[in-house]
């Protein structure tokens, strides 16, 4: 029998992995220089979003249950500066952050959900901290996908149901028994 805590952990891990995959499918469609495209000087590029997510994931999820999620070694302001990382270096940063995050998340057990952690000295229960990051990371992945679609325009390959293809998709799902 599943307890709600186990169901919750399984569900959020699944959702986080789906968002990670959306980001990676976007990177696959982009050229090196497109990773650094900024719509204007106050907007973030995909590269900057990756830098920020990497810093956030490393800070929040290193020693998640025992240390404040805002580490002294984090240089948050620098995450939003333009750096000339190659596409591969950016993907490596993406992978590094997700690895730390997912390993920590997958190591949690049902009893950990009732614990209190801190982020910037603010106490949060673990469920709230996870939900906070689910909203945060999906927000940034949405930005990445949107920028990728904007950059690639007509060359963009849809990551979900293509425009005007809902009926075809629904028929396929019915045939598969979903």
Characterise the protein shown here:
There is one protein chain. This protein is mainly alpha-helical. Helices cover 58% and strands 4% of the residues. The protein has a two-stranded antiparallel ribbon. A hairpin with a 2-residue loop joins strand 1 and strand 2 (122-125). Helix 2 packs parallel to helix 4. 22% of the residues are buried.
Head-to-tail CA distance between termini = 24 Å
Strand order of the largest sheet: 1-2
Mean pLDDT: 95
Number of helices: 6
Which shape, going by the Cα principal axes?
flat
Amount of beta strand? under 5%
> Quick one: biggest sheet?
2 strands, antiparallel
Uncertain runs with pLDDT below 50, 5 residues or more? Answer: none
Task: Find the count of extended strands (DSSP E, 2+ residues).
Answer: 2
The share of residues in helices is: 55-70%
Q: N-to-C SSE series? A: HHHHEEHH
Computed CA radius of gyration, to the nearest angstrom: 18 Å
Output the structural class: mainly alpha
């Amino acid at each position: 029998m599943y307890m709600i805590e186990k169901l919750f952990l399984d569900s959020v891990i699944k959702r986080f992995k789906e968002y990670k995959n959306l980001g990676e499918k976007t990177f696959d469609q982009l050229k090196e220089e497109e990773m650094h495209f900024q719509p204007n000087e106050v907007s973030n590029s995909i590269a900057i979003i990756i830098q920020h997510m990497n810093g956030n994931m490393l800070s929040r999820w290193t020693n998640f249950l025992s240390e404040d999620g805002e580490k002294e070694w984090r240089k948050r302001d620098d995450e939003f500066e333009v750096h000339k990382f190659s596409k591969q270096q950016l993907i490596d940063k993406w992978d590094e952050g997700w690895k730390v995050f997912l390993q920590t998340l997958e190591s949690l057990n049902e009893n950990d959900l009732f614990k209190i952690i801190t982020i910037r000295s603010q106490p949060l229960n673990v469920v709230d901290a996870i939900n906070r990051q689910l909203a945060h990371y999906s927000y940034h992945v949405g930005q990445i996908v949107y920028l990728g679609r904007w950059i690639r325009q007509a060359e963009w390959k849809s990551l979900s149901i293509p425009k005007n293809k809902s009926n075809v998709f629904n028929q396929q799902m019915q045939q598969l028994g979903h």
